[in-house]
Amino acid sequence: MNAVNWVVAGIGDIARKRVIPAIQSEPRSRLVGFVTRDPAKIAAYPGTRAWPTVEAAVANPEADAVYIALPVAMHAGAAIAALRAGKHVLCEKPMAMNFAEAERMVAAGCSSGRLFGVSYYRRLYPKLLRARRLIAEGAIGRPLVAEANCHSWFVIEGREWLADPALSGGGPLYDIASHRIDAMNFLFGKPERACGLLSNAVHRIAVEDSATALIGYPGGVHGVVDVRWNSRVARDQFRIIGENGEIGLDPLNGPELRVAGRTEMLPAHPNLHFPIVENFVDAIAGDDPTRLACPAEQAAWVDWAIEEVVSAQSGSF
Question: Average pLDDT, stretch 247-271?
Answer without folding.
Answer: 98
